[in-house]
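In this section we walk through a basic example: taking a raw amino acid sequence and producing a predicted 3D structure, encoded as discrete structure tokens. The instruction is simple. Fold the sequence below.
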Amino acid sequence: MTLATEEERITILTDSFDAAAMEFHRRRMAAKGYRLENRIAGHHFYMTEGMETSKLFDGEVKYAVTFVRDDEMK
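The resulting token sequence is shown next.
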């Protein structure tokens, strides 16, 4: 049986695909041991509290990019 490693995730939201893609380089994520976890894509964000759901960011599309770093890379 192997133990699962913990992963540290950072998700950044931006107004454009280009800005999201640049964050990897701007923040020097590779040098810190991070890799891109998912493709960069536009999302609509909602918050739910019980039965109530509300749009975040006035319903505007935000681009989400998530970086992940394995425990072993720290």
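Looking at the output, two observations stand out. The chain has one domain: 7-73. The radius of gyration is 15 Å. In the next section we compare this with other chains.
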